From TrEMBL:
Gene3D superfamilies: TolB, C-terminal domain
Keyword Calcium part of the UniProt annotation: yes
Co-factor requirement: Zn(2+); Mg(2+); Ca(2+); Mn(2+)
Localization in the cell: Cytoplasm
SMP-30/Gluconolactonase/LRE-like region domain boundaries: 13-264
Annotated positions binding substrate: R99, N101
Example of a GO MF term: gluconolactonase activity
Source species of the chain: Paenibacillus dendritiformis C454
One annotated Gene Ontology cellular component of this protein: cytoplasm
Catalysis: reaction(s): D-glucono-1,5-lactone + H2O = D-gluconate + H(+)
Name under which the protein is recorded: Regucalcin
UniProt keyword annotations, A-Z: Calcium, Cytoplasm, Hydrolase, Metal-binding, Zinc
Length: 302
């Protein structure tokens, strides 16, 4: 498996890729660049949607005519055609020292989204310990706090049967598993299943393939890895020519391609000279296939 550059996006903090099989579009965000990007690999079309604040993540909706976006303080619908941005309910966060980060839809059409602390407006891995949370946005617009005591909420994913949720709180250097009640959207029985060794970078975004194996992007590690969550064994590692490898998703024909986002924030000039495509989107063609992403059930919200 080798990584090829797909888009020289030069994102400051590229994150959260998601594949829309209906439109054959790849969406991703540039968090600090305050933008949602999308591209159509077949047609070559690309577009950028400017956001009013940090764009933590983007998700697909059942209606298909709008996206669900997690901005710095809460949840918003974004209309790609008109570029309108509509807030859902009231802001969830009321302090400029916190922001939303990664988010994903569960198998029942809810959105789970976590937060992190900002120190003087910048991300910190060493401060803000235990100050973040994981929230659930229900299809009726209700917001529920699922977890507290988190430091840097990051990647999420579900087993193919939906009964296990995998979760990353980055400074723990682990992937944890929860029993997941799909009917209620509730978590239980938290336990560590994957441990990242020192020197491999920090665990960031993740995805799960059709075989139930977990893929992790390594911030500062210039790689993505595949793991067996039942044994904790690393099955594969793919080098990415960008140190800050942030997230990944399956997409393309039959979900047999991995799209990998990266970042260039915090890199010195000499590092950028060595990694000129940092901030780009890369493509890997693994042997395993992925699963379609779940969509937010937006039928109850205007």
């Amino acid at each position: 498996m080798k990584a090829e550059l797909l888009y020289d996006a030069r994102a400051a903090l590229g994150e959260g890729p998601v594949w829309d099989e209906r439109t054959q579009r790849l969406y991703w965000v540039d968090i600090t660049g305050r933008a949602i990007h999308y591209a159509e690999p077949e047609s070559g079309k690309r577009e950028t949607l400017a956001m009013p604040s940090y764009a933590g993540a983007v998700a697909l909706t059942e209606s298909g005519h709008r996206l669900l976006c997690v901005l710095q303080d809460g949840f918003y619908f974004v209309h790609p055609d008109t570029k309108e941005v509509d807030r859902i309910g009231d802001p969830v966060l009321h302090s400029g020292q916190m922001r939303f980060n990664d988010a994903k839809c569960d198998p029942a059409g809810r959105l789970l989204a976590g937060t992190l602390s900002l120190i003087e407006g910048k991300l910190s891995l060493s401060k803000g310990e235990g100050e973040a949370s994981l929230y659930r946005l229900d299809p009726d617009g209700k917001v529920v706090t699922l977890l507290e005591g988190i430091t840097l909420s990051n990647g999420m994913g579900w087993s193919p049967d939906g009964r296990t949720m995998y979760y990353i709180d980055t400074p723990t250097m682990r992937v944890d598993a929860f029993d997941y009640d799909v009917a209620r959207g509730e978590l239980g029985n938290r336990r560590p299943v994957i441990r990242i060794s020192d020197g491999e970078g920090f665990p960031d975004g993740m995805t799960v393939d059709a075989e139930g194996m977990v893929w992790v992007a390594h911030w500062g590690g210039a790689r993505i890895t595949r793991w067996n969550p039942e044994t904790g064994a690393q099955l594969a590692a793919v080098p990415i020519p960008a140190a800050h490898t942030t997230s990944l998703c399956f997409g393309g024909p039959s979900y047999r391609e991995l799209y990998v986002t990266t970042a260039r924030t915090g890199m010195r000039e000499e590092q950028l000279d060595q990694q000129p495509y940092a901030g780009g989107v890369f493509r890997v063609k693994p042997e395993a296939a992925g699963l379609p992403p779940s969509r937010f059930d937006d039928r109850l919200l205007p």
